[in-house]
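Hi V.,

You were right to ask for the full record rather than a summary. Here it is.
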Amino acid sequence: MTSTKTRRAVLNAYKYLLKTQKETFHGDFLAISEARRKTYEEFLKNKDETDEKEINKQINQALEAAEFLKSNVIQAVFDEKTNRF
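Predicted structure:
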């Protein structure tokens, strides 16, 4: 059985990843929807995990994914007036 602290850490990682996706893909509703779906799918797939080490590994992966989105993904908007992104 996982501790309350671990459960809270999982929930916080989930929320942080969703928030980061929303900020990164601001205005791109399809990208946000797909990112949210994939995140939900991955967290749900691991919902019955009880090994604390494995749970912490997965939490770290979620946090790393959020940091990757923040530092490596750019959403460009096309400007028809200048014909540039």
